[in-house]
Amino acid sequence: MTTIVAQPLTADNFAPYGTVIELRDAPDQLINQGRCGRHHDVAQPDIVDGRAGISLFSSEAFTLPFQFEMVERHPLGSQAFLPLHRNPFLVIIAPDDNGTPGTPLAFLTAPGQGINITRNTWHGVLTPLAEPGLFAVIDRIGDGPNLEEHWYDVPYSVIRS
Fold first, then answer.
1. Kindly report the CA angle at 5 between 124 and 89, in degrees rounded to 5?
2. Which residues, 6+ apart, have CB-to-CB distance to 13 below 8 Å?
3. CA Rg value for the chain
4. Phi/psi at 141 (5° precision)
């Protein structure tokens, strides 16, 4: 088994795989009589041959170390995961290596961070680290094959730094 050390999620280290969704230092606009800050257009869904939909995912919590042997990707649409809580969650990403996933990376989110995984990017399953594991997910709704799984021959284990 290979061990991966989870690193803190930042916009820079996640950029090759998607977008970190979080509040900016200041809102782009104040709305609702100045009582609400709008942080405008923080991520862009990328959908092919379908439409964007909003779903709710409710997952059991996982613990670290976390062992996994599978990653997946969605060639027809990006996936955004927005936690409906302030608990960190684990994000597993693998760079593409000529159509198969390369060596995975692991990131730990900070409270208030969400992610938008770029279309066709290898990633692990939704991995909340505390209850409730409730997320709003924005992804592609439509017909056609939009899921590809890859099973590693040797499992990986993710630990905290």
1. 50
2. 7, 107
3. 16
4. -115, 125
- pLDDT reported for residue 18: 98
Q: Give 135's contacts (C-beta < 8 A, 6+ positions apart).
A: 56, 57, 58, 59, 81, 82, 83, 84, 126, 128
Q: How many CB atoms lie within 10 A of CB 86?
A: 10
Q: Residue 72's domain spans which residues?
A: 2-159
**Count of domains observed in the chain:** 1
Could you tell me what percent of the chain has a pLDDT over 90? 96
Report the pLDDT averaged over residues 138-158.
96
Tell me the CA end-to-end span of the chain in Å, nearest whole number.
18
Task: Answer yes or no: pTM beyond 0.90.
Answer: yes
Average of per-residue pLDDT across 31-48? 94
Q: Which residue carries 């996982």 as its tokens?
A: 62
CATH code, 70: 2.60.120.480
